């Protein structure tokens, strides 16, 4: 038989298991997360919902006129902080973002569900600059979106031997399993791990210092962490002053009253709404007494006389059976005698 004919002893080639798994996950609309240790990159096929834009501007008429002239489909809502823009599709969302930059609006938004970067932490490096770490990654044919130098909370109390770096990769560009195959960067042995994120009560933008959104999607004016002014931190020469509550602390202080106020407002907005119910007045007019049902007792069934033997006849049968049983020797004779009496008088 020709090779590949499927005869005995010939193994048919199995389909690519990774490709089959990938197709299965792509067709599964309930699949919601990636395995960081897996080498399979899955692109979801569910429809993405575009996040809103927020603009600290009250001139809705001008904004609608510009958007309508550019043929951008969107809905608008006036809020206490400005204007909220919601686009029906991702295409309209991207178009609106480009136009807002062209019109030089200050705004912020959030990540698209499918565009959130893959975040990893590199351990083992020295006190390097962000630029040198980025160059070392590119030598390994990696293209990071952003590299951040992380600061430990107890950095001053403990003398750590290494420094941590947070790296953002485009979603689907690589996996943790592939990164772990890179044992060293710039001749220094490193360890890779998934970024878990800090357990923060609220997100604060490091660009405009506002609460509720991240730095990556903020296009507001840059504000100084030290004084709240519209300049970079390294250019600040003013006294410490919070840009959110005007207190004598930095704008990123965890005990800031403005932060706590934002947390309380968000809890009230996201918590269950209290429904005030009016208790009904209970009286005879609203709730009249129910009628008492009349129970008719059922008649007792008539007594049917049970057939039996007269007393004299019972005594005679008992004496006769006693005489017969006294003459029995074996158990079999006793049973036979009883059977005879049952047949004789049981009819």
From TrEMBL:
Top-level division of the source organism's lineage: Eukaryota
Disordered as annotated region, ranges:
1-20
What name does UniProt use for this protein? Nucleic-acid-binding protein from transposon X-element
**Originating species:** Culex pipiens pipiens
Lineage, broadest ranks: Eukaryota, Metazoa, Ecdysozoa, Arthropoda, Hexapoda
